[in-house]
Amino acid sequence: MWGPQDDKESEKALHKALDCGINFIDTAQGYGKGHSESIIGKVLKERNDEIYVATKIPPVEGNQWPPDEDADAHVYFPKEYIKKQCESSLRRLQRDHIDIYQFHTWATAFNMHDEWFEAMSELKQQGKIRAIGVSVPDTTPDNVIGSLALAKVDAVQVIYNIFEQYPEWNLFPVCERLGIGVIVRVPFDEGALTGKFTIDTTFPDGDVRRHYFRGNNLPEVIKKVAQIREKKDALHPDMSMAEFALRFCLSHPAVSTVIPGMRNDRQVMMNVTASDGNRLSPEGLQELKKFAWRKDFWHEEVSG
Q1: In this predicted structure, what is the pLDDT of residue 232?
Q2: For the chain, what is the domain count?
Q3: pLDDT at position 261
Q4: What's the pLDDT score for residue 3?
Q5: What phi and psi values does residue 45 have, to the nearest 5 degrees?
Q6: Quick check: 300 and 45 in contact, CB under 8 A?
Q7: Phi and psi torsions of 157, nearest 5°
Q8: CA 51 to CA 69: how far, in whole Å?
C-alpha cells in the first residue's frame, strides 16, 4: 500500500525498534491480508521483551468503508465474525492475547448497538484481548464519543498532526476526562510533514500516496510544509522535521502513543529521537495552531 517492502528489511527494522526500547506495535488484519501480523509474530517469537500489540479487525468484506453514519453494526461486525477474526490474528501473531483489539472503522450508529460490545467483552473475559479499541474514520474522529460515554471503548486511534488538529477541540477533552487511551496515527500526513517531498516527487503504482497527493494536493502541501519548516527553524533549528512533527503529537497530554511507520533502520532512529519525554513549549504549540488544516485528500483535490 505504501510501495515495495522487503520482509527481511521489515524484520530488521522491528528488531532495531525493540532494541531502542519501543514496546508498542500497531498493525491490522488488513495490512497485507494478515501478512503484517505474521511478520510481527515471527519477530516477537525471537524476543523476550514485554511488548504491547494492537491490531484491527476490518468490517465484513463487501461493506462500504468508511460506513455511513447510520450503518448497522450487526452487518459490519457480527458477533461470531469478531470472535473468529480474533482467533486468526492470535494465530498469526503467535500470542495468547491481543493488548488492544480495535475496530478498523466506525459509524456513529454503532455506539447504540450491543452485539459488538458483547463479543469484545467475551473475548476480554476469556483473556484473549485486554482492551477494546476503535480506529475512527479520518474526517469524523468524534463519532465514537457515544461509546466512550457508555464505557464500551478503552482506546481510540485517530489522525492527529500539525495539519489535522481538530481532535483537540472535541475528542481529546473527552478522552482526558474519561481516561481513554489515545493512539495517534498519520503523524507525518502520509510523509509530507517529514519535509522530504518535492514538486518532482512521484509514487509507484499501487502506492496509496499516488492518489492522496494527486493533482494540486502535493504542491499545496509542499507550500504549507515550507512555512512549517520556517517556524521549526526559528524555534528548533537543530531538530529534523520528522522529530518536530512527532514532538507536536506527543506534546498533547491526551496522547498516549504515536505510531509512525518504520520501514528501515534509518527511519527507526529518526523516530525514536522524539521518545525522550520532552514536549514542545506551550508558546511553540500556540504558534503551530495557525497551520491547522481540515482536508480530505482521499476524496477530494484541493484548489490551487
Answers
A1: 98
A2: 1
A3: 86
A4: 53
A5: -65, -25
A6: no
A7: -105, 130
A8: 35
- In sequence order, what DSSP letters do the residues of the chain get, joined into one string? --S---HHHHHHHHHHHHHTT--EEE--TTTTTTHHHHHHHHHHHT--S--EEEEEEPPPTTS-SSPPTT--HHHHS-HHHHHHHHHHHHHHHT-S-BSEEEESS--GGGGG--HHHHHHHHHHHTTSBS-EEEE--SS-GGGGHHHHHTT--SEEEEE-SSS--GGGGTHHHHHHHHT-EEEEE-TTTTTGGGT---TT----TT-THHHHTTTTHHHHHHHHHHHHHHHHHHH-TTS-HHHHHHHHHHTSTT--EE-----SHHHHHHHHTTTTSPPPPHHHHHHHGGG-----TTT-PPP-
Note the pTM of the prediction, 2 decimals: 0.95
Cα 263 to the chain's mean position, in Å?
15
In one-letter notation, the amino acid at residue 278 is N
- Domain encompassing residue 278: 7-195+238-291
Question: CA dist 189 to 28, 101, 150, 198, 284, Å?
Answer: 19, 24, 31, 15, 20
For residue 1, what pLDDT is reported? Answer: 53
Run means of pLDDT, 10 residues per run, the chain, 304 residues? 71 94 95 92 94 97 95 98 98 98 98 97 98 97 98 98 97 98 97 96 92 96 98 97 97 97 88 92 97 95 86
CATH number (domain holding residue 56): 3.20.20.100
Q: To which residue does cell 484481548 refer?
A: 129
Structure-block grid coordinates of residue 187: 503523524
Q: Cell numbers 514485554 label which residue?
A: 50
- Cell of residue 277, nine digits: 519525554
Residue 227 is assigned to a structural domain of this protein: no
Residue 232 is assigned to a structural domain of this protein: no
Predicted pLDDT of residue 303: 85
